[in-house]
Amino acid sequence: MSTTWHILGAGSLGTLWAARLARAGLPVRLILRNQTRLASYQSAGGLTLVEHGETRTYPVIGETPDSQEPIHRLLVACKAYDAEAAIAQLQQRLVPNVELILLQNGLGSQDAVAAQLPQARCLFASSTEGAFREGDWRVVFAGHGYTWLGDAAHPTPPLWLDDLHAAGIPHAWSTDILTRLWRKLALNCAINPLTVLYQCRNGGLQDHHCEVATLCAELSELLECCGQPAAALDLQDEVERVIHATAANYSSMYQDVANARRTEISYLLGYACHAATRHQLNLPHLQQLQVRLVDELLARGLPRD
Ligand code: NAD
Ligand code: KPL
């Protein structure tokens, strides 16, 4: 009998994972915030996934955090700023050797969760898949991509990667997941804040080539200093490639700001600036970028963190 996948966070990525795992006949349970959300979910009849223009609803079982069933495997699909508190609610239900898969973008939340649950196995994920919510319990699979999974403490892959294979979730085991997360963080720091400040699509940054190059130089210095030289390799080339390849897209941070949603700044640019301070590194353009971004968020009435 397969271990149940408990999924915490029925948003874009949580729904995308839940629907595909359920579609493969694997046991899945969705943990919703409270009884009100559970009632709303139940009246919708399940999770709806829109993929290649086709719409299908999956009647995944929903529950609230105070349900009694023990949790052996937990996919954490909340935003980085919600992860710790959301997991804390489940503490009584986690078995001693529980496995957590942390889907959060950026860095910082994973270490906070690992410190919160020293007995758990925490796997980190970095994903290039893209999904967005079209409404309550309805998600569009917008960008096919890949998910890298790894465990900074143990290099051995878990057997349940077979479940991902069965579910058609493109993935690979990574023995350098921290390098991947740092690299993605650097890409996000070089692109996302500027798209908010210039109110442009990613391609609009082609008009700000020098500023992007300066940020990449500082980010590379930071990565080297943080013991991540592989994440610094040819950073600027990759940033330029991504800007070109995603020229028509709006960055995730741009979309958060445009929709008046809290951003994950503290786990991206904020984390980078904090690491620079810890290493007594002077990175003036990166620090200035953070000041400009925080001012912009405050001016729009959004949280600064
Ligand atoms: P989302 O906002 O769509 O979903 C998060 C869900 O978590 C929401 O439904 C929210 O209600 C729920 N949640 C928060 N606190 C909770 C709690 N205490 N109990 C139960 N549910 C709770 O976010 P998302 O877009 O799916 O992103 C999740 C993470 O994945 C982020 O770190 C994001 O950066 C990363 N990511 C997202 C995408 C994407 O395409 N959406 C791609 C790559 C990475
Ligand atoms: O991941 C991204 C995002 O928008 O968050 C890209 C497309 C790489 C831009 O930084």
UniProtKB/TrEMBL annotation:
UniProt cross-references to Gene3D superfamilies, sorted A to Z: N-(1-d-carboxylethyl)-l-norvaline Dehydrogenase, domain 2 (1.10.1040.10), NAD(P)-binding Rossmann-like Domain (3.40.50.720)
Superkingdom as given in the UniProt entry: Bacteria
Domain Ketopantoate reductase C-terminal: 176-289
Designated name of the protein: 2-dehydropantoate 2-reductase
Main function: Catalyzes the NADPH-dependent reduction of ketopantoate into pantoic acid.
One Pfam match: ApbA_C
UniProt organism field: Pseudomonas quebecensis
Enzyme class: oxidoreductase
Catalytic activity as recorded in UniProt: (R)-pantoate + NADP(+) = 2-dehydropantoate + NADPH + H(+)
Assigned protein family: Belongs to the ketopantoate reductase family.
